[in-house]
Write the C-alpha cells for this entry.
Amino acid sequence: MRGEILRLYKSVHTWTGIVTGMLLFVCFYAGALTVFAEPLSHWASPPTGGSIATEDADRLIEKTLAARPEAAKDFTLRLATANEPARLTWRKSRNDDVVWSATLGADGELRTERSNAFGVGAFVDSIHRTAGLPLDRETGTTVMGVVSAVYALALVSGLMLVLPSIAKDFLALRLTANLKRMWLDAHNLVGVASFPFHLVIALTAVVFGLHEPIYDALDHVVYDGRLPTIMRSTGPFGGAKRDEQKAPMKKVAELAAAVESVSPQFSPISLHYRDADTRGALVRVVGEDPRFLSRGGGFAVVRGATGEVVNVDYLPEKQSGWTAAVSPFFALHFGSYGGEPVRWAYFFLGLAGAFLFYSGNLLWIESRRRTVRRHGEQVMQTTASRLMAAASIGVCSGCVCALSFAIASTKWLYGHVEDVEAWRHGIYHAVFFGVLAFAFLRGAARAGIELAYVAAVGALSLPLTSAVALAEPSLGPWAAADPISVGVDIVALCAALCFVAMARVTARRVELGPSDSVWSTRGQEPAPGSAIPVSSSGCAVAVGAGEGDDIHG
C-alpha cells in the first residue's frame, strides 16, 4: 500500500480515536458491567421477603389497582423468578418520570414505593448509553450515535493501517524495555482480535443512537409526514379499538398459556397491560424463546378480557423473513444468548474495548516524542500534551471510580432519601468531575497512581458494605448471603486487587521511565531559580531526557 495512503489512514484513525476515545471508554466500561446488570440490581435491592409464587401475581394486580386505580391505564407486571417476587410498576402519567412499584410482602400485604428495584442495572445502562454526559437520556443517546459513527470510521482506518503487517505483527506482544512498542503491540492485538465484535457494536450503536433522527428524515423525505400514522397502524396494537366498558381480566396464567399455545417454547417474563379492567384491554406478553437469537426476546398481544391472541408477528417463532434476518444482528450487541460463557466473553470484550481506547490515547501522547526527535529537536512536553494526558487519566479513572461509589451508595441511601435514583446520578457526577479536576491539578503521572488506588477503594466499597451490613445491621445496609450477591462481592474484590496492581505498575513507570515522558514526574519540576528550557518553537521543554531514553520513543 502506498505510503501516502497509509499516512492518510493513520491521520483518520488517530484523530477519530482522539475525538471519541474517552467517551467510548465510558461506554465500554459501563457496557461491560451491564452484562451483569441483573446481579448488580439484585445485590443493591433490599430483601422483600415476598412470595415468589406465580399465582400471587393476580392478587398483586388486584390489590395494587384497588389502592392505586390510576395504574390501570398502563402498567407492567414482572413475573416472579427464583429469587424475586412478582413486581408491578407504573407511572402516574405518560410524562411523569417517577416510576412506582408494588410487591406483596411475606405477610401478603401490599407494599408500594418509588421504583428502585432495578435502579442499579438501569443506572449503569444509562451511563453506557450516554457516556455519563450530563444531558437528558434522549440527547445523550443521540450524541453517542454520532460518536459511534466516528468510532466505526476509526475501526476501518485502524484495520487498514495494520493490514500490510498483519501476518508479522498480529500475535506479536513484545515484552521488552521498549514500553511504547509493548503498548502498540497490545493495542493492535486487542484491536484486530476483537474487530468483528467492535464492528457489530459500532454499527448497531449508530442505529440505536440515531434511530429518531433517521425516522424523522424518512418521515420528511419519503413518507411526507405520514410515518407516525403508518407505524401506529402497523404496530403491535394496530387495528385494536379501545372499549372502556368495564370487564374482568383473565388470570395471568391464562394469558401466558394463550401465548404458549401459539409458541410452545416461548417463556413469558413480563406482561404489559393497557386499559386494564375494560373490554378493550390489551396485554403485551413479553418473553424469550431459547431457540432464536433476538433482541430482547419477543412478545405477543392478547386481549386481557378474553385471552384471545391478536398479534403474533413479534414472536421469535413467527417473525417475517426480514425481521428474522435482522434481529440476530442487533441481538449480537447485547450478549443475551448462549448463557454464562457468552456473558463472561462480552464482559471481557467490553473491558478490552475500554483498554483499546485508553491505550490509543497513551500511544498518541507518547508518539509525539519520537516525531520531535526525528526532526532533530529536543523532546518537550507541551501544555496540550499534559492536558490531554490529564484528561485521559481523569475521564477513565473518573468513570471507574464514579460507577463503583454510585453502586455502593445505593445500600447506604435506601430508606434515607426519597429519590435514590437522583442521588445515585448526583454521586456519579460528583465523583467523576472531582476525579477529573484532581487529574488536572496533580498532573497525569501522579494522578495515574493515586487515582488507581482510589479506584481500588471504590471497588472494595462493595464487599466492605456487605461486611459492614453483616457486622452491624443497625447502620442501614443489608447483607445477602445468596450466591448472586456473594459473586458480586468477589468480582469487586478481584477488581480492587487489579487496580492496586495497576497503581504499583504505574508508580514503577513513573519512577523508572524516561524523564521526558509525560508520565514522568522527574522532568516536571525544574530546580528553584533555574530557567525553563525552551524549544525552537518557544514551548517549554521537558527536563532530564537522556540518550538511553530513545528506546522508549
Summary: The CA atoms of residues 26 and 131 lie 5 Å apart.
